[in-house]
Amino acid sequence: MPAGAALSGGVAGPDALRPLLDAVLAGLADGAALRGGPLPAGGPAGVAALVAAALGDRDHRATSATGEPAEPSGQGHPGEALADDGNHPARGRAGEPAEPDDVLRRLTTLLTRGSADPADPACAAHLHCPPLALAVAADLAVSALNPSQDSWDQAPAATELETALVRDLAALVGYDPATAAGVITSGGTESNLMGLMLSRDHALGRAGGHATELGGLPRDLSPRIFASEAAHFSVQRAAAVLGLGERAVTAVPVDRDLRMDPAALDVLLKEAVGRGETPVAVVATAGTTDTGGIDPLPQLADIAERYGVWLHVDAAYGGGALLSDRLAPLLAGVERADSLSLDWHKLGWQPAPAGVFLVRRAETYAPLARRAVYLNPADDEEAGYPSLLGLSLRTTRRPDAFKIAATLAALGRTGLGRLVDTCHDLAHHAAATVRAHPLLELHTTPVLTTAVFRYRPASGLPADADRVNAALRRRLLTEGRAVVGRTELPGRGPGRVRLKLTLLNPHTTPAQVDALLATVVAAGQAEERDEAERAGEPEGVLEGVPA
Fold first, then answer.
1. In 417-544, at which residue ranges do the beta strands (DSSP E only) sit?
2. Nearest-CA neighbor of 104 among 30, 20, 34, 28?
3. DSSP 4-52
4. Pairing of strands 249-252, 223-228
5. Rounded distance, CA 459 to CA 475, Å?
6. For residue 156, is the peptide bond before it cis, meaning its omega torsion is within 30 degrees of 0?
7. Backbone phi, then psi, for 305, in 5-degree steps?
8. Rg of the chain over CA atoms, in angstroms?
9. Which are the contacts of 469, defined by CB distance < 8 A and separation ≥ 6?
10. Alpha-carbon span 394 to 203, nearest angstrom
């Protein structure tokens, strides 16, 4: 058998893995050293050329976004450090199999060199955490064993482990573990889809007089979902997938912190009912993607209860606050939600995917029940063999609960809570630095671990601010100096573009946050100087922008 055909499981699996893991670890180190920053320089064209060169495509010519050949970066061919004397890194010479450890080291070096690394303090754009080494090692065990959770006989221990973890997480959010239910998902998008699917079947089945999952959508009903203007786009996507249509989602106004206005929700629900429409769900957000804003959950729960509407809480980001004694009170009222999304690959420091979906009452899961005679035959379940098949939208499903369970066993809620508090402190330090800088403007006080702000150009014009902030971010990406987030506030007209630091690295120091903000300012000043030169203005004409 070829050397690369060894298996990862069985008694011999660990011995087969050891040299390959050494190669991967060496490639991780090599790639990080070659990258030398939070992401590769050169932008999309540079990365495309890097990959092509590493894969042996020496005829590849990088092109710009317009399709024209990209300008040289002055740093030599991006793939030179990885290209060899003619061997293709994935095929060896003349298409013959290559040594597995050599292939892995080369391609891991390529991947690492060409990655945005959330472990770098200057990589702070997205809800994209640097995973704990412990969790990554746990994930390796899952990959090596390759269990699948669609039947007990493919994942005996993993089935029990996920069941126990779901009980613990139900207790964490304030549900009764004895009556709640849930499953590990691929993330908030899947979890939100599940919550809205169950709410659809609950509301429309009750109103239409038949099981929606069996008979389809009643034709004489007008379903409506209520979510804030700052809710995640997956709410609209779920409405489309569920046959309701994106227009079934009613956007509820928000305040400056992007929190849903309860009075506006009450009015919109009253109007919808008055028109004969059927409210399907209220979607509250506990941790908006941009500001980390948390909707007023107790008030929204009261309103949903008054109208008899399903309350789903998207806590994919803010659910991490439950790990912190300091921040957990922000989620007061979450225990009243009918369903809930959590993401441990955000404020949980897990490698993706690590989502969680929970329902307060297990009986509301009924529409997902599924019998497949080759996976969960009734006589097996009667004989005591449990099945998770009816808890998930997926069939084949890896046991992502294992890495979460390993992390909780090692660090506990207290240890993870310290990490949450550290990142919260970093966000407040960033906010203080922004407030103190004359060329920066803070949008709002951080709630969780995100600081939203913008660079203030000399003109002070809203359209100029939008253009310069968008451009400085791309400048930082192209130069490989920083990964900073970009968003737009709700509303219309210019002046809504903002930058954001999503601080999920508990090893980042306040000094490194200050350095990142100084880099943003320098990029903004450089953009203004370049704009002035393109406009033919004399050097130094822009106040506060050094020539």
1. 440-442, 450-455, 483-488, 497-502
2. 20
3. GG--SSTTTHHHHHHHHHHHHHHHHHHHHHHH-SSS-TTHHHHHHHHHH
4. parallel
5. 20
6. no
7. -65, -40
8. 26
9. 454, 455, 486, 497, 498, 499, 524
10. 23
Give pLDDT tens digits for 491-503.
899 999 999 999 9
Residue corresponding to tokens 């489309």: 240
**Which residue type, as a one-letter code, is found at position 216?**
G
* C-beta atoms surrounding 466 within 10 Å: 19
Q: What is the pLDDT of residues 217-251, one digit of tens each?
A: 988 899 999 999 999 999 999 999 999 999 999 99
How far is Cα of residue 149 from the mean position of the Cα atoms in its chain?
A: 23
Q: Which residues are CB-neighbours of 302 under 8 A, at least 6 positions away?
A: none
Quote the CA–CA distance of 159 and 38 in Å, as a whole number: 38
Q: Can you tell me which residue has the tokens 């991947």?
A: 111
Angstrom distance (rounded) from CA 118 to CA 508: 11
Q: How far apart, in whole angstroms, are the C-alpha atoms of residue 519 and residue 301?
A: 43
**Tokens standing for residue 157:** 């221990």
Task: Give me the half-sphere count of Cα atoms (radius 13 Å) on the Cβ side of residue 261.
Answer: 11
Strand order in the sheet with 355-359: 181-185, 355-359, 339-343, 310-315, 278-285, 223-228, 249-252
Please name the amino acid found at residue 490: P
Alpha-carbon distance of 244 to 203, in angstroms, equals 13
What is the average pLDDT across 474-499?
97
The predicted-structure confidence for 306-337, as pLDDT tens digits, reads as follows 999 999 999 999 999 999 999 999 999 999 99
User: What is d(CA 541, CA 527) in angstroms, rounded to the nearest whole number?
Assistant: 14
Using alpha carbons, select from 434, 490, 495, 123 the residue that is nearest to residue 285: 490
Q: Which of 263, 261, 225, 260 is nearest to 242 (CA)?
A: 225
Nearest-CA neighbor of 128 among 505, 479, 442? 505
Mean pLDDT of the chain: 92
Q: How confident is the model at residue 84 (pLDDT cuts 50, 70, 90)?
A: very low
What token pair was written down for 319? 């659910």
Q: Taking the mean position of all CA atoms in its chain, how far away is CA 292?
A: 13
Asked whether the beta carbons of 182 and 163 are under 8 A apart, the reply is no
20 to 144, 309, 325: CA distances (angstroms):
12, 53, 42
Q: Using the 8-state DSSP alphabet, how is residue 114 labeled?
A: T
CA gap 19, 137 in Å, rounded: 16
Q: Which two tokens stand for residue 155?
A: 């994942």
